[in-house]
């Protein structure tokens, strides 16, 4: 197809500038900005309580190890070891379940969240994130500038794990 056959609508769409300063000279995709060292919202929340499964495993391993010994010797160190391991396992069991649930939810939603994240544009001048027209996630208005936390929430919401955002969760 020659140039002459191109219709106007075939031209690459023009980049829509920042909703605040109305310019695109400082605009760049969120992914590119992160690559340049900008600290911006991520696709998924950081790992949390990752120590729990390891401690639970240690506790379980200790129980398995000391239980047979208890049949033969009921000296204080063995009993103490058994109790400590059992206590460790009980203490970390709930957190371990939470860690696995959290990992699974993030794994399931991460690609949907990433799709929204990938469409975010940062205006480095105004430090807001916005979407190109037609790429806004549901609930975000046309040319609506978002603060980082708002963008974060939209990304997590797309992934179905908005309740895992920052504070107070488990
Ligand atoms: Zn701007």
Structural account:
The protein has helices spanning 30-35, 51-72, 76-118, 148-159; strands spanning 27-29, 120-123, 128-131. With 170 residues, it is mainly alpha-helical. It has a three-stranded antiparallel beta sheet with strand order 1-2-3. Helix 2 (51-72) packs antiparallel against helix 3. The model has no long low-confidence stretch (mean pLDDT 89). The site of zinc ion (ZN) has 6 residues, from loops.
Question: What gyration radius follows from the Cα positions, in whole Å?
Answer: 25 Å
Work out the helix count. Answer: 4
Please give the number of β-strands.
3
- Portion of residues in helices? 40-55%
- Biggest sheet, spatial arrangement of strands: 1-2-3
Please state the average pLDDT score: 89
Strand content: 5-15%
Structure class: mainly alpha
Describe the sheet with the most strands.
3 strands, antiparallel
Summarize the SSE layout with pairings.
Elements: E1 27-29, H1 30-35, H2 51-72, H3 76-118, E2 120-123, E3 128-131, H4 148-159
Antiparallel strand pairs: 1-2, 2-3
Characteristics of this structure?
170 residues, mainly alpha, 3-stranded antiparallel sheet, 49% helix, 6% strand, rod-shaped, binds zinc ion
């Amino acid at each position: 197809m020659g140039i002459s056959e191109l219709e106007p609508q075939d031209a690459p769409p023009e980049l829509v500038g920042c909703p605040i300063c109305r310019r695109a000279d400082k605009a760049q995709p969120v992914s590119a900005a992160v690559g340049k060292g900008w600290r911006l919202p991520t696709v998924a929340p950081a790992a949390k309580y990752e120590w729990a499964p390891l401690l639970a495993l240690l506790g379980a391993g200790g129980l398995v190890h000391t239980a047979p010994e208890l049949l033969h010797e009921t000296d204080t160190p063995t009993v103490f070891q058994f109790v400590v391991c059992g206590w460790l396992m009980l203490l970390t069991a709930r957190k371990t379940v939470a860690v696995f649930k959290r990992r699974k939810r993030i794994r399931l939603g991460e690609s949907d969240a990433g799709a929204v994240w990938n469409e975010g544009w940062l205006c480095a001048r105004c430090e807001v994130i916005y979407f190109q027209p037609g790429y806004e996630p549901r609930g975000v208005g046309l040319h609506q500038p978002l603060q980082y936390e708002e963008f974060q929430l939209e990304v997590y919401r797309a992934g179905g794990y908005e309740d895992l955002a920052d504070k107070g969760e488990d």
